[in-house]
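Ticket opened by: R.M.
Priority: normal
Category: complex prediction / small molecule

The reporter submitted a protein together with zinc ion and asked that the result be attached to this ticket for the collaborator who will pick it up next week. Submitted input follows.
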Amino acid sequence: MPTLTDTTLIIRCPYCMAGIDFSPMIAHKDGRFVCRDCAHTVRPGVPEYRCTCRPCLRLSRKPLLNDHGSRLLTQ
Ligand SMILES: [Zn+2]
Ligand SMILES: [Zn+2]
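Result attached by the on-call engineer:
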């Protein structure tokens, strides 16, 4: 009997909602999880992994120059 830890691991996309929940991401053979809807990818256990999907690129493009205590509305 293999352990159920791998099959019960469900990673949900932080950007996409499926009904009332976030949409589950699909496990790939290389260890990554990929979202069907926005192509967001994560690598469980690799915090320095950088996803290059559209929502992530939009987040990383936010300038961090205003992070000196005073919050500016940069939307
Ligand atoms: Zn997604
Ligand atoms: Zn992403």
